[in-house]
Amino acid sequence: MNDPTLHDKIEAFLTGQMAAGDAEAFRREMAADQRLASEVELQRLEHDAMNLLLEKDLQKKMAYWDDAPPPNPFGDDSGKMNYLKIGLPILLVGLFALWGGYQYFASTTDSQPARPSSEWPAQPDETAPVEAPGKTEPADNPPVADAPDEEQPEKEKTEKNQHQAPDGKSAQKGYLALAANTYQPPAQLASGLKSGDPATEKTLLQLAAEAFDGGDFAKAAQLLGPPSESDQSQVRYLRGHVYFNQKKYPAAETEFEAVVSTRISQYKQDARWYLLLTYLAQLPAKKAAFEALAGQLADEQNQYSRMEEVRALLKKLAAVQQ
């Protein structure tokens, strides 16, 4: 669809933003204009496909959250209790050490003479401050023990990212697969270019056709040489097929478009079909070009020889978009 104004008008009609009188007039216009009706139907299919994709994506997310809910942002209460069980004894030991130190310094300032150290009674509890660093080892253990739990959110994040694959890339792969599976090389092109007389020296075009038949697309491209405006339509037609099989879709598009724009060519009608497949392989970038050409080829008034193939392709495309 090359008319932005028409696109906006159809969008308003499909979304219910058009006034009742204008909508009724637009329906009469569609009934009288088959091409307009086709444009509206294509745009309606796009709406349905997009809504279905959004619905399926939301269902996948909800199903994933049921199986693997996100981690508690406030942490694990059991972890808090572990730290309390370990930290409380350490706090008591520290307070006891402070109290013992206070008593020691108070006794040294007393008026009574200090007793020799050999006469001091044993104070087992005074060793607690010394042992305190050893007792803090369990405090270091919880992070080690909880390491798998700390790694779990990262693992869940990775799995979530894998689960939520970008829809754009998945759709592109679907378009490429549909284009590749639909494509069939022309059966008569290569054989028609070959010389029937074995004694006659073969042209580069005939040698390129033989290489194409043998699946040696690199050799065929080398024999054909780089594209030129002076090339005959049969050369550009064969080169377009070579590029398509090499997955050089923009280059194939240029060659097929050149054949289609030729005034008189025996390959012109078939080139339109293969041009449509190059647009399909480049979706969604070539969406506008694909829709315009598909609508033209599928229109009964144009009596295109491959009209039924185009309509079948559009049905397969709708299934891919779902």
What's the gist of this structure?
By secondary structure, the chain is an all-alpha fold.
Structural key phrases:
flat; mainly alpha; 322 residues; Serine Threonine Protein Phosphatase 5, Tetratricopeptide repeat; 3 domains
Backbone structural class = mainly alpha
Q: Estimate the global geometry from the Cα principal axes.
A: flat
Low-confidence runs of at least 5 consecutive residues: 73-81, 109-121, 130-136, 160-166
Helix segment tally: 16
Radius of gyration: 39 Å
Largest sheet descriptor:
none
Share of β-strand residues: under 5%
| Mean pLDDT level | 76
**Span between N and C termini?**
22 Å
General description of the model:
This protein is mostly helical and 322 residues long. The chain contains 16 helices and no strands. α8 (167-182) packs antiparallel against α16 (307-321), α12 packs parallel to α14 and α14 packs antiparallel against α15.
